[in-house]
């Protein structure tokens, strides 16, 4: 479910909950695909697992989340193309990062 959050300074960001569907969780291959997809984006994207967050453009930070199959993550996006970027990230999760 898409939600809009107010951030410090009065701006807003969009967020949505996703479920890790890959049987092996978020391992190197899907993480690399996510980072590569976001590399040209001017938006700030973070992944949250409980109280822990990761910059979604940083492979090592995402690995530290240790996201397993079935885990719920919150994707937060702030920037000029935030809605499109959020949609792209959510679709990657839904498509299991195109892994079989």
TrEMBL record:
It comes from the Bacteria. Keywords: Cytoplasm, Phosphotransferase system. The keyword DNA repair does not apply. The keyword Cytoplasm applies. It is found in: Cytoplasm. Its main location: cytoplasm. Residues 13-100 form the HPr domain. GO terms for cellular component: cytoplasm. Signal peptide: none annotated. GO terms for biological process: phosphoenolpyruvate-dependent sugar phosphotransferase system. InterPro entries: HPr (IPR050399), HPr-like (IPR000032), HPr-like_sf (IPR035895). This is Phosphocarrier, HPr family. It comes from Pseudoflavonifractor capillosus ATCC 29799.
